[in-house]
Structure formats: C-alpha cells, structure tokens
UniProtKB/TrEMBL annotation:
Pathway(s) annotated for this protein in UniProt: Phospholipid metabolism; CDP-diacylglycerol biosynthesis; CDP-diacylglycerol from sn-glycerol 3-phosphate: step 3/3; Lipid metabolism
The entry's keywords: Cell membrane, Lipid biosynthesis, Lipid metabolism, Membrane, Nucleotidyltransferase, Phospholipid biosynthesis, Phospholipid metabolism, Transferase, Transmembrane, Transmembrane helix
Protein name per its UniProtKB record: Phosphatidate cytidylyltransferase
EC category name: transferase
Source organism per UniProt: Mycobacterium asiaticum
Protein topology in the membrane: Multi-pass membrane protein
Amino acid sequence: MAATEADAGSTPDEPVDASQQPAKKTSRAGRDLPAAIAVGASIGAVLIATLLWVPHFWVLYSALAALVASHEVVRRLREAGYLIPVIPLLVGGQVTVWLTWPYRAVGAIAGFGGMVVICMIWRLFMTDKRSPDSHGADGAPPPSNYLRDVSATVFLCAWVPLFASFAAMLVYDPQHGPGWVFCMMIAVVCSDTGGYAVGALIGKHPMVPRISPKKSWEGFAGSLICGITATVLTATFLAGKEWWVGALLGLLFVLTTTLGDLIESQVKRDLGIKDMGRLLPGHGGLMDRLDGILPSAVAAWTVLTLLP
C-alpha cells in the first residue's frame, strides 16, 4: 500500500527535449571529433614506440596497411560494378612491399610489374556473374569492360601497394631510417593540422569546389606554413639533411597531401560514396587516412635518397 501511495504521489517523468542534450562534437566534415582524436593519438603512440625500439616493424605496418587499404578500395570498386582481380592484387601487393627488404627499389619495381601483368591476365578469364550472359540485338556479345577494369586495377596497384613500398623503404637508411619516417609523418600531420585549423577559422575561398567544397585556399596557406616549418626542423634534426632540402621536401609534402586528398575525394565522388570503409571511428576507412601519406612517401624517399 505504501508503494502504491508513493507511486501515486510521484510526478510522471517529463519528456526529454533532444535539443537540450549535449551534442556530439563533430568536425567540419561531419565526423566524430573525439573519436577521431582518440584513434589518431593511439595510432601515433604505437608508431612512435615502434620506430624507437623496433624500427623495422615499420615494414610490417606498411605491408598490413597496404593489404587493408587495398581490400577497402577493391570492395568499393566491386560494389560499383568493376571486376577487380582480388587475389593477385592483394598477394602481389604484399610481395611488392616485402621485396623491398632484400632488394630495395628494384624489388618494388619488380613486384609492381609482376603484379600488374598477372592482374591483366587474370582479368581475361573473369566473368561477371551479376549480369546476364546475353547477346545484343545484332548478335554481338555484351561488352566485357576489360579495359575499364584493368585501368582501375593498375591504378589501384600503383596507388596503394607501390606507394606503400616507398614508405617501407624509408626505414632502411642505415643512419637515419627512423628519422626519415618521423620526418614524413610529422610533416604530413602538421600540414593536415595547419590546413584544417586555418581553413576552419578563416577559410572563405574554395580551392576545387567541384571535388572538395570545404578545402580552401586559406587552409592551403596554413598547410604551407605548418608543413614547410615542420619539415625543415625534422629534416635537419632527425633526417640529417640540409635546411633547404627540408624546405623543398616540405613544399612537396604539402602538394602531395593536398593532391592525394583531392584524388581520393574524386575517386569517392565517382563511386558515389563518402568513405572507403568504417575501420577507424571518426576517420572512415584506413585508406581515408592514407590518401595523403602514400604519395608523400614517394616524395620523401625520392628527395631524401637523391639529395644530400
């Protein structure tokens, strides 16, 4: 009876106004900002520890990243109707990265060439089971889309596994291997952060609105300032290079990170998707984080290897 009276004297719960609930913080791109920061910090901590104590594990990370990112892109391409030779591409990508350990750049080139040839042959014998095997009104066989599929496959072979092999080769330098990796990673992060911060604060003039409406010229200027400054410092103190090499490399990093992001944005627009995957909370897929790092690895290895 007491319980009944207590219930009778209690007031019913008031409906909760959703507008009064704390909103989840999101970035300008509509991502979960706290999750993105947590994931980025965790990955950064693991990479720093690896490069300090077991630097050659960087090759393993490069190979795994190439495998996961390639699979993400292949899945998206197949969803869009492309026939991609999955097995030779994924296996060949691993061979391409790991051949850099004993053979360096020669191994990367040989692995890439072999992967492309096998993928081209493999695609010859693939059939699309999702479309009916019917002939046209004139009796001609349906189009095979071989050229389209092979072009996309070769693009993917270069975009992910070949570029990842350049990232792996950074750590092989006998004197400054980990420093070369730190130089690239710190510069890319500073370039991205500077571009995002300046663009969010004062960005008003879009760079390429057709591809990436939120990327602004003001943000690009922020990337230039932060990216070049970070690269000059890291190239001088971590990579053992002259300051002018750092300045040149910093400029290249800003270009490769910006253009790499635009390239992936265009690919995603062509495929009608927002992200390549959902592996990393707040970021999307792994490929969505590697779009600027992969081409930057090519620039880093080339400049740091060829210039004093």
